[in-house]
Amino acid sequence: MKTNLPFKIAPESICILRLSALGDVCNMVPIVRTLRKHWPRTRVTWVIGRVEHQLVGDIKGIEFIEYDKKSGLGGIVKLRKKMVGRRFSVLLQMQSALRASLISLAIPAQIRLGFHPRMAKDFQWLFTHATTKALRHPHVIDGYFAFLEAIGLDQRELVWDIPIPEDARTHVDRRLGGMKRDYLVVSPCASIRFRNWRNWPVRKYAQIIDYAFHRYGLQTILTGGSTEEEIEIGRRIRHHSTHSPVNLIGQTSIKQLLALIERSVAVISPDSGPIHLANAQGVPPIGFYVAGNPLRGGPYLFQKWVVNAYPEAVLKTFGKSVDEIRWGKRVRDPEAIEFVTVAAVKEKIDAVIAEGNIIK
User: With a threshold of 0.85, does the pTM exceed it?
Assistant: First the structure.
């Protein structure tokens, strides 16, 4: 099929398919901001997961279509019904998992654009008419912008400006009882996935919480989801901390979490969604990177704040340097998180404070 890319003029309509996860969806925001600013007459539709929609669904100028990722074949049928009578100028298949490719078949489009085969997986190129150009060692966000370059839009707007409702800020004020901005947000748990060991030991979190309080007078707020595992980890962190943190695990919505991060000095977390929310808010994200390379999936604007133990983990697991392995290769070792030391995290906190990220 002749793709006629890049477009010589802005297309009439674009559909984006990116369902999850929270961090990846957060990283998508500069893409839609760029589209809205430079192609304001192009209608943009985003097919997105339900949870992720809670984060970005109030961005103006974008039509959002929620998709239930647990709905199976029924969800695809339902999406196809929603698409009756539509035909997009181009579909940007910005999620290359097989499930997403199957879902894409329910979206009518003149052109289907996917990742370059070097960057794709699950044979995504079998479901597309065209692909982005190959990039050498790209960050995830660079891979997203490659879609815009492929359709003829070369500008970049590294702007997030994710809306925060005033009731979310009010909720945070009420829960914190008037606490000032002098607090850390600690989100101790990464999402639960198969052979995905990213969570730091409870006792080490407790040491960091006590250090922040005794050295700088910083309170700590614990955040996270409502699973039994996360709630138990929060309980254990408080038990081992001399200065007990405020425990809001399982007690905040996504927008409330964003409001909480907005006022914080820094966010401490393994490689997970809150690190990217902090990046979006301009808050120092002290992320722990062991399983994945932060140069590929870390906070785009604030790489200097991450604790990067990925090179050590790669050497231990594969006996090679980062340059000798495939870009994006993950470390699947339950002991690798031990390469993130308490001393390294303390150094990052010291650096954050030294740059004036605290209000007295």
Answer: yes
